[in-house]
TrEMBL record:
Its cofactor is pyridoxal 5'-phosphate. Belongs to the class-III pyridoxal-phosphate-dependent aminotransferase family. It comes from Amycolatopsis roodepoortensis. This is alanine--glyoxylate transaminase. Gene3D superfamilies: Aspartate Aminotransferase, domain 1, Type I PLP-dependent aspartate aminotransferase-like (Major domain). Pfam families: Aminotran_3. It comes from the Bacteria.
């Protein structure tokens, strides 16, 4: 069967809104380290890692061995109605790593489900359905998380179980405050937050949720310190602060283990997923114990915290620590950022990010007009040269570069060269 045949079958039985990359989509059938092979036998260097999920790369023996060891017990699943030793042990590790006092952990199967849980807990705790979110944000595809997504391209419905108000700050490149200094920018965004609270809400808001670096929004982020300043305002109102660490967690940003740590603030809750499982379905929430325990109804998680995912996730945490991958993410990320900024291509409007979360915003030469066409051509050009990257941003004009955290210096140079050559080809 050809990829064209498989694509036809895909279109016949799967939703029309299920996005596929490339004019001729590919099927990945084998992978090793940071490289993947498609059904035609072509090899690609992977700079998107399954949307930041294959954080350690592919076929990592320590992780595979941990999963096989669990499979050998014959137990893939028991449910949270029974004690799961590996779940308790992983929760203990994450609670300690979070820095949140008296933290408790609840495991889910995805970032969407983790954020949905965070909203349920916050609204119950505060007895309010009002939520603050950032413009240009993305938090998932469930009914509630779509309702707090500040990016129209990913918000399919205006209907929502929560009442959301959006504030400035997460996307600086096209912000009305972009020309201000870091300090002035923070002051302006905090003033906007106060204005929204006083004019657009009844005051008793449940929470504010924010990505330290916006993922789908094009790897955009505010100056360090913004969320600390915002939390000072939130605390005055008793409003909870939730950091969405689905993409920024586990050291990927290089400078810090959690993205929010760049702002010198401890949130009331953090959500996580993606890279923790290195491809296994896992998500979760770590939060203050009194917040996690605020539910009065019974609840379980059928698949969340299952033994297989727990075994793999524990091995991922070990691998990050044993190989100092946070430092590697910082070093390789700086090499890529420096090289992209030095490219001097007129299509590049902005190069941003931290560690191995890098966004390249493409514009019409000589201005700031978004250039989604150039981003689409870059996807094809890099693919033809043997490199897989991602695409996003409010206007679909941002290249998203997020290789596995195990990326080598040689692979970073190889990928950088391909991106620079592809940019030159479409200029």
């Amino acid at each position: 069967m050809t990829d064209a045949d498989l694509l036809a079958r895909h279109k016949a039985v799967l939703p029309s809104w299920l996005a596929l990359y490339y004019d001729e989509p590919i099927e990945i059938v084998h992978a090793q380290d940071r490289r993947v092979i498609d059904s035609t036998g072509r090899t690609y260097l992977d700079f998107f890692a399954g949307i930041l999920t294959n954080s350690m790369g592919y076929d990592v023996s320590a992780i595979s061995d941990a999963v096989r060891k669990q499979l050998d017990t014959g137990i893939l699943h028991t449910s949270t109605l029974y004690l799961i030793r590996s779940q308790v042990e992983l929760a203990e590790r994450i609670a300690k790593l979070s820095g949140i006092p008296d933290a408790k952990v609840f495991f889910t199967n995805s970032g969407t489900e983790a954020n949905d849980t965070a909203l349920m807990l916050a609204t119950q705790y505060r007895r309010s359905n009002q939520v603050l979110a950032m413009r240009n944000s993305y938090h998932g595809r469930s009914f509630a998380t779509v309702g707090i997504t500040g990016n129209r391209g990913w918000s399919a419905s205006s209907l929502s179980p929560v009442k959301v108000s959006y504030v400035h700050g997460g996307y600086r490149y096209r912000s009305p405050f972009r020309a201000l200094s870091d300090t002035e920018y923070i002051d302006a965004c905090v003033a906007d937050l106060v204005d929204v609270l006083e004019t657009g809400t009844s005051g008793d808001v449940a929470c504010m949720i924010a990505e330290p670096i916006q993922g789908v929004g094009g790897f955009s982020s505010p100056p360090d310190g913004l969320f600390k300043a915002m939390k000072e305002v939130l605390d005055q109102y008793g409003i909870l602060f939730i950091s969405d660490e689905v993409q920024t967690g586990w050291g990927r940003t290089g400078e810090h283990y959690w993205g929010i740590q760049a702002h010198d603030v401890v949130p009331d809750a953090m959500t996580f997923a993606k890279g923790l499982g290195n491809g296994l379905a896992i998500g979760g929430l770590v939060a203050r114990g009194d917040l996690v325990d605020c539910l009065t109804a019974n609840s379980i998680s059928t698949f969340g915290g299952n033994p297989v995912a727990m075994a793999g996730a524990a091995a991922v945490l070990d691998h990050i620590a044993d190989h100092d991958l946070q430092a590697n993410a910082l070093a390789r990320g700086n090499e890529l950022l420096d090289g992209l900024r030095a490219a001097g291509n007129p299509l590049i409007g902005d190069v941003r990010g931290k560690g191995l979360m890098i966004g390249v915003e493409l514009v019409e030469p000589g201005g700031m007009t978004p250039n989604p066409g150039a981003a689409a051509r870059m996807m094809e050009e890099t693919k033809s040269r043997g490199l897989l990257i991602g695409k996003g941003g409010l206007h679909g004009n941002v290249l998203r570069i997020a290789p596995p955290m195990t990326l080598t210096a040689e692979e970073a140079a190889e990928g950088l060269g391909i991106i620079v050559d592809a940019l030159a080809a479409i200029s």
